[in-house]
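ENTRY TYPE: protein
WANTED: fold as tokens:
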Amino acid sequence: MGKRQQYKGLSRISLGRASFRQQLALAFSIGIACLALASTLAVWSFSSRTIQTKLVEQGRQITETFAAQSTLALLYQSADNAEDAAKATLGFPDVLGVAVYDLQGRDLLAMGEDPKPPGEKREWPRELQVERETFQAWHFVAPVYAFQNGPGETQSPFGISQPESELVGYVRVLVGKQTLDVMGTLILEANLIVSVTLAALLLLVLLTITTRLTRPLKHLANMMKRAQLGEKRCGQSCTVLGTSSTWKVPSPP
């Protein structure tokens, strides 16, 4: 408790001895620094969310394409038919691993890093989704359907039913967050540089204005101090800079 009170006392003394211009500059500096930091974090957060949304949508499209290309491999239970599609998918930026599974959840093909999400096993979904998101990557999973009556086949003129789909397996795609991390860092650095530069220019302008505003008061205070110390002769008048006021310095007692 004693050290805290001593620290508070010293801080009050230091602030009390500081001039009005110094206190005003300190208040402006703290305010501008907080404003620059808040604006930088706000812009960085908004930009990061926008980039993340686009990357997730890109990952969904990659997973959907890979699922469509894996249909033949699942129908014939042949991993060779999915190798080309897996290699093409791994060629996309930030794609770290892919895998194809049959209806029992057994691996038919796996390339790259293991796309299985950490934690407990979950039920296979009926539609494409982000199965798990970690700090390093997104885990996409999608079912693979095969049409019994494909779009290229001729349907009976007496039939009005739509082509039915058959679930033949699942695919997983692991997409890393390297691009998100790099873009987020670049955006944060750029915004921080711009904010600090603008804050420094604004602080310089404010200091210039406060200097011009406080100069007459400072000059008047110096003249009154000299008069009290007897350094000014009796009857001498002084004019405050920046104003039209003239002060008569009284003679010392």
In short: Strands lie at 95-101, 107-112, 129-133, 137-147, 165-176, 237-239, 246-248. Residues 6-10, 148-154 have pLDDT under 50 and may be disordered. The first helix runs from residue 2 to 17.
